[in-house]
TrEMBL record:
Residues 42-187 form the Aspartate/ornithine carbamoyltransferase carbamoyl-P binding domain. It comes from the Eukaryota. Keywords: Amino-acid biosynthesis, Arginine biosynthesis, Transferase. PROSITE patterns: CARBAMOYLTRANSFERASE (PS00097). This is ornithine carbamoyltransferase. Belongs to the aspartate/ornithine carbamoyltransferase superfamily. OTCase family. GO terms for molecular function: ornithine carbamoyltransferase activity. Signal peptide: none annotated. GO terms for cellular component: cytoplasm. Its EC number is 2.1.3.3. Residues 194-347 form the Aspartate/ornithine carbamoyltransferase Asp/Orn-binding domain. GO terms for biological process: L-arginine biosynthetic process. Gene3D superfamilies: Aspartate/ornithine carbamoyltransferase.
Length: 353
């Protein structure tokens, strides 16, 4: 729980190796990267399309890459393994992003491959060329096609026609890469997440969709507070309930009151209230999200030791500086994990484990 004597930090969370003893006494389980043996050639569209074993394998491979290529690694990045030498990924960006572009370009470079940025002025999906033709052409040049788009149907259309693996780097329905980064940050902090409670406070959007799917797969209880009219997708909620039942969690808790969702939680998560393309709704949304700011007062409803996540970029109306820059905030390790996790997805898709 936040205290009046908050310490403001900007440092990574404690990172746990495969055999590290956690503070609560149990040992972190062995890595299961071998579960990805059958992932070669698969698309990465949403978290619910992964088996529990594949999700586990991607998280473990991400941690392995951080240990191998990270700034605290003992391996020289020049002589480190380059499993994706000769491979390339085309990155289609209808929507700009700092983390997605930098993490993918840097991560592909660390693995020995090349990333090519295709912005709105370089490529217009379905406008000057059909989606089918774009998918088929890029498949001839590149090993992977990554797409950050407005409509989820665009990702589905690309994956339907591409002859190489496709990565959904964000659509209006799903953001699976962000969920991998979030879950990795939470495992680094807590260890096993089974039985932990995750509270979402804000818009029922694409980030929430994959996070509740992934949390349920790892045995987390899900509590959601959204303003009236900003509910999460009903189909995704039902899928989450099904996954929760399979993995021994409580039923998904839904409310319009932020403090009710946060009560008894171990993780509090929010996101931007106004996504790209919704700028004209700014004043309306800020008014309707009144009472949803994550601040010290709201965090007092969470369990002692609760942590905070935000996928960035953040705005002060969404979370106070007191929480955002506190010890409880994992936002910067969370952001760093975007690189390790996209590296894991690309390597697994190409069978280069």
């Amino acid at each position: 729980m936040l205290s009046s004597g908050l310490r403001f930090l900007n440092q990574p969370a404690v990172r746990l190796g495969a055999d590290t003893f956690l503070k609560n006494g149990y040992v972190k389980r062995t890595m299961s990267i071998s579960a990805l043996a059958g992932f070669e050639g698969k698309h990465f569209i949403s978290i619910d399309k992964l088996s529990n074993e594949e999700l586990r394998g991607l998280l473990d491979l991400s941690k392995k890459y951080r240990d191998t290529y990270g700034k605290n690694a003992t391996v020289d990045p020049v002589t480190a393994p380059k499993p994706l030498t000769g491979k390339s990924v085309s990155m289609i960006f209808q929507k700009r992003s700092t983390r997605t572009r930098v993490s993918t370009e840097t991560g592909m470079n660390l693995l020995g491959g090349q990333a090519l940025f295709l912005g709105p002025s370089d490529i217009q999906l379905g406008v000057n060329e059909s989606m089918r033709d774009t998918a088929l052409v890029l498949s001839r040049f590149n090993s992977i096609v990554l797409a950050r788009v407005f409509s989820h149907n665009d990702v589905l259309e690309l994956s339907k026609h591409a002859t190489v693996p496709v990565i959904n780097a964000l659509s209006d329905m799903h953001h699976p890469l962000q969920t991998l980064a979030d879950l990795m940050a939470l495992e680094d902090h807590f260890g096993d997440l089974k039985g932990k409670t995750l509270a979402w406070v804000g818009d029922g959007n694409n980030v929430l969709h994959d996070l509740m799917l992934g949390g349920a797969k790892l045995g987390m209880n899900i509590r959601i507070a959204t303003p009236v009219g900003y509910d999460a997708n009903a189909g995704v909620i039902e899928t989450t309930k099904k996954l929760g039942a399979e993995n021994g969690t409580e039923d998904v808790f839904l409310t319009t009151v932020a403090s009710e969702a946060v009560k008894g939680s171990d993780v509090v998560v929010t996101d931007t209230w106004v996504s790209m393309g919704q700028e004209s709704e700014y004043e309306k949304r800020v008014k309707e999200f009144d009472g949803y700011q994550v601040n010290a007062s709201l965090m007092k409803h969470a369990n002692p030791g609760a942590v905070f996540l935000h996928c960035l970029p953040r705005h002060p109306e969404e979370v106070s500086d007191e929480v955002f820059y506190s010890e409880q905030s994992l936002v910067f390790p969370e952001a760093e994990n975007r690189m390790w996790t996209v590296m894991a997805v690309m390597a697994a898709q190409l069978g280069k484990l």
